[in-house]
Design brief:
This is Sulfate adenylyltransferase subunit 2. Residues 27-71 form the Phosphoadenosine phosphosulphate reductase domain. GO terms for molecular function: sulfate adenylyltransferase (ATP) activity. 46% of the residues lie in helices and 6% in strands. The chain is built from two helices and two strands; from the N terminus they run H-E-H-E. It has helices spanning 6-24, 36-49, and strands at residues 30-31, 58-59. Helix 1 (6-24) packs across helix 2.
Length: 71
């Protein structure tokens, strides 16, 4: 059996934390900003609960404030 790489260990730990939070909290919600970090979190969440749907909703808060580079 091949040992896990550092990145694989981080991914496994992240998935474990997401499952633990979903099982422990009454009303978990995941914030989603449509950015790259949110994209990674969404991918990890989908991987954690596949083939089921996410057990929590995504929440996007649109402040209408944008970085100049995004316009």
């Amino acid at each position: 059996m091949t040992p896990l790489t550092h990145l694989q260990r981080l991914e496994a730990e992240s998935i474990h934390i997401m499952r633990e939070v979903a099982a422990t909290c009454d009303n978990p919600v995941m914030l989603y900003s449509i950015g790259k970090d949110s994209g990674v979190m969404l991918h990890l969440a989908m991987k954690a609960f596949y083939p089921s749907k996410l057990p929590f909703p995504l929440l996007h808060v649109d402040t209408t404030w944008k970085f100049r580079e995004m316009i």
